[in-house]
Amino acid sequence: MKHKFTKYLGRVTENLELGFEEKWIYVHYTKGSTEKTACLLKNEKKSEDEYLERFFEENKVSEEMKKEVNKFLKNDKNHNDTHWNEFTNFLIKALSLNMVFGISIALSVYGGFKLGSFLDSQFEIYPTFTLIGTFLGIGIGGVTVYSMVYKYFKSPIKKEKENVKTVNRDLTGNIDHPIIDVTIEEVRRAVRTFSDNLPKGAFRTILVQEDNSIDFKQLASHLGGIPSKKFYMSKETYDLFEESEKLIPIEMDIVQKAVDQYVKERKEYPMLKFDPQRRVNYYQLLQNHYLKAAPETQFYITDLDGLVTHILPQKKNSSQS
Q1: What burial letters (b/e) apply to 118-153, b meaning 16+ CB within 10 Å?
Q2: pTM for the model
Q3: Residues 122-142: tens digit of each pLDDT
Q4: Number of domains in the chain
Q5: DSSP string covering 191-239, please?
Q6: Domain closes at, from 43, 65, 80
Q7: CA atoms within 13 A on the CB side of 250
């Protein structure tokens, strides 16, 4: 889910777009003619506002925008940390339902008892029907209480799973989707749309199968069919790849995890100093046991807070001022 913020600073409009994923925070910022996009990798135990603070300072985000974002993050945390309110509601609900439970069981037992007594008086075999009616009333009362408990105290986790199942309904449905030809850019747009509509707590990695191929049954409604060829996705960076590059996402996930762990423990990137290409130094990762074997693909460390890429970075033009 993406969140947009807008501030009007005189003649200049300031826009900020935030997207929160499991592994990183997507940021798109514009202010007048200035435009900046970044992916802040969440590889440390920091809050979301701490990750954004550095970006705000580097790009001179206005104080008004900072306050609005911080207010949003604070309200979001308060919305998530509702344990006290939930506990209070639980007590109110429990006390009210306890009264209902007691009345339900009492009426069921009393009704069973009276019915049994009446039958005993008619057939003169006391206390046979009285006992049967009493136990039958206890049983009916127990079933009634169980139904109430199941209805009113249904697990939130179960509800969340049901939401995810609703999103993934195509997986179990018998819908016949046509086979279509699509480009990787069309797949990328479909993945973004799918991700934006996911329930809270679910991430686009649910699209990725064991071999890193994309499960297009979940994307069929966004694409208009099932692609005629496979596409693959990295679980760590969400980069997309075609069939000819299917080994890259597997190696990319391994290398990204190794780089994240290296940075977390050593506070520096595993690359040679002054390397203009910012290549991931596999020797450093192998020597310190972050990797078991050197990948076939050469990866590079981007400017997006430690995310790796297989694309060779372009040389910066030194003549530009």
Answers
A1: ebbeeeeeeeebbeebbebbeebbeebbeeeeeeee
A2: 0.54
A3: 887 878 888 888 888 888 878
A4: 4
A5: HHHHHHTSPTT--GGGGB-TTSBB-TTTTHHHHTSEESS-EEE-TTT--
A6: 80
A7: 13
